[in-house]
Design a protein that fits this description.
This protein is α+β, with helices and mostly antiparallel strands and 398 residues long. The chain is built from four helices and 22 strands. Strands 2-11-15-13-12-16 form a six-stranded antiparallel barrel. Strands 17-21-20-19-18 form a five-stranded antiparallel sheet, with no helix packed on it. A hairpin with a 2-residue loop joins β12 (267-272) and β13. 20% of the residues are buried.
Length: 398
């Protein structure tokens, strides 16, 4: 656009030398320039891409240990990135050792409880034998024994029955104790089994594989930076994409100061840096609603837009290819275009200074699309009108 403006000024200088003497630089209205263009820069992106993210089943940030080179062709199920698995291997080993210890404790406890059960069972059998003997030799005729003998024998039987009841109570308590202790050990073992399963699952996710054939392309964060090996990444964080190369788009960055008339549907000319003499046409498909900075080194803000290209040449178009573009605010218009600096506003109307019979006159015009360098005039000017590029209102009468 700066080059076009220079050409316009040069044409004005060549066509109106005499007028220049009294009013500075001038421009002769002509219809040879028929478009107002807004410059933009950007790169090629795929219209559809499969995001590559840190697996969501991991519950803490992970360090990216390795990944394939950017723009490398990859095949389905090929490993394209690895996370640092050192911690999970160590934890898995530790939990495995702790689980073995619990299994040993379970075996020891089982043997101990079995011995206790045998002791209680043996004691119970002995008491029952003694009760049997006591019942067998019960006193049928109290006249045959002394009173003391009778009392002793009855006391002995009561004692044995009390011992048997106590033995049965001990057995019930033993059962409760044994079940509780074995359940606690089983719960501890289950806890280690669960943790080991979790660590194994995490280890399985340390290798990230390509979901389909494609080209490995790194994603940019909000600062425009790409992920590097060694960075800590949160689960679910996208760090790369596998684009579909059959249909490409241009992603443009438009200066906020030049974006006033840029809208969806405008035609765009795209020039790849690698093939600067080849022009591809497209149309703006979307524009982000908010301007943002694209570099930490500069506060300048840009609007990001996506352009659908009329054709995709896979041999030349790859994601990340740098490009320059021209957004056509007007194209093939029959309305004249003049330098934007020629206009001035008064009482909500727009005017230009036009040379009429050697005198500068103020003329009201209807303005169409206004760009940073050129403005479309829909009414008020005709071809070959001489317009002051930098009007000096105080120098001439109206």
């Amino acid at each position: 656009m700066r080059i076009i403006t220079s050409i316009i000024i040069l044409m004005g200088l060549m066509g109106c030398e005499e007028a220049e003497q009294s009013h500075g630089l001038t421009y002769v209205v002509n219809k040879s320039i028929q478009s107002i263009e807004v410059p933009a820069k950007g790169e090629l992106v795929a219209k559809t891409s499969t995001p590559i993210s840190i697996p969501a089943g991991i519950f803490e940030p992970q360090q990216l240990a390795w990944m394939v080179d950017e723009n490398q062709l990859v095949k389905k199920d090929e490993v394209i990135a690895r996370l640092d698995a050192t911690k999970y291997r160590y934890e898995l080993q530790q939990k495995g050792l702790e689980r073995k210890q619990v299994v040993i404790e379970k075996d020891v406890k089982k043997n101990t409880l079995s011995n206790e059960e045998d002791d209680i069972g043996s004691d119970k059998k002995l008491i029952k034998k003694e009760l049997t003997i006591a019942d067998k030799y019960v006193i049928d005729d109290v006249r045959l024994y002394s009173k003391n003998d009778i009392i002793d024998k009855m006391k002995n039987k009561d004692y044995l029955e009390a011992r048997l009841a106590n033995n049965e109570w001990r057995f019930d308590k033993y059962q409760m104790k044994a079940d509780t202790e074995m359940e606690l050990l089983a719960l501890r073992q289950k806890e280690f089994d669960t943790k080991m399963m979790m660590y194994n699952s995490s280890l399985d996710k340390m290798e990230i594989k390509a979901p389909h054939d494609g080209v490995f392309v790194l994603s940019k964060n909000w600062r425009g930076e790409k992920t590097k090996v060694g960075e800590m990444l949160f689960p679910g964080r996208e760090f790369a994409v596998l684009p579909d190369l059959s249909e490409m788009q241009a992603e443009l960055y438009i200066l906020e100061s030049e974006s006033a008339n840029v809208k969806v549907g405008l035609a765009v000319k795209v020039f790849l840096d690698a093939y600067p003499n080849e022009m591809y046409r497209g149309m703006i498909a979307s524009i982000e609603p908010m301007a943002q900075v694209i570099s930490r080194e500069s506060p300048v803000k840009y609007f990001k837009a996506r352009v659908d290209l009329e054709q995709t040449v896979q041999e030349k178009m790859r994601p990340g290819t740098q490009l320059n573009a021209r957004i056509l605010l007007t194209e093939d218009s029959s309305d004249p275009l003049i330098p934007s600096t020629a206009l001035y506003q008064k009482d909500e109307k727009f005017y230009v200074d036009v040379l009429e019979k050697g005198q500068w006159k103020q003329r009201e015009i209807e303005m169409g699309v206004r760009g940073s360098d050129l403005t479309q005039v829909t009414e008020g000017l005709v071809e070959k009108d001489v317009v002051a590029i930098f009007p000096l209102i105080k120098e001439f009468s109206r």
